[in-house]
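Q: Here's a chain of 280 amino acids. Please give me its 3D structure as tokens.
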Amino acid sequence: PPSVYTSSILLVVVVAVGDVCAFCPPKGFGSGRPQRAPRIACDRHLPSMMAFWNGGGGGKGGQEAERGELKQQLLTLASQFKKGGDQEELLETIRALEALNPTPKPLESQDLLSGKYSLLATVTPGAAPERKKRREKEGPVGQFVTELSGASDSGGEVPSIVQQKGNFQDIDLENKVVSNRAVVAIAGVKLEIDLQGSCSFPDAAGLPPEEAERVKDSRLYVAFQRARVTVGGLPPLLIPLGWTNGGKGPEGWLDTTYLDNDVRLGRGDKGSVFVTARRQ
């Protein structure tokens, strides 16, 4: 339907400027707008994922048990957060897990960092007025599409015709490619936007030596070159993103602050915090 196609093009524009870029907030667009990424509804997966996470993810004895408990709490809070749950409680749990990170040098564990993930929550820390000010920078169209995609952490209502199906990330460090896929249904018609790009390590980012040394073990740089849009059963539409950011496409970075067999936590260059769970 034309209305769905129009919504898909709007979503692609917002993807290009960072509203559904779950890896990190792109730079180079002049608005200074922070990244806001979709969150998946994980309620139906809660019991099985909790059982899977109980005590998993490496470590010995007490730390292993503590990680398991914290991961169960994390999943519950992430599920509640999208319904207006306590942001600070979620952030406290994130910080507690980060302090027990069993993989302090994730870029040295490329097989572990690579994988297919589901995005459970995106948190934009700060007081409500600060978050409101950031949100106002999106403008009316950006605000509408952010709510439409489920990216907002402001508690806004998503239109009833929209069903959020999820946000999924793929990281392939061997081939240095990444993918961020957002899926919704509009009036029963499936809409999928797949951001496809490349990733690089700090030693290839042209950083000053001191900064490169500080982030060499945890920071991944990402640039998105194209968006693949699929509406229902129609052929995919490929949209180049090289018209942004001086031909580089949307780009940014993400520090991995916790990593094990089940969970990955990350902090982006605009301060957003991401909670992801491994699908495989």
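Q: Can you summarize the key feature?
A: Confidence is low (pLDDT under 50) at residues 12-22, 25-53, 55-59, 137-152.
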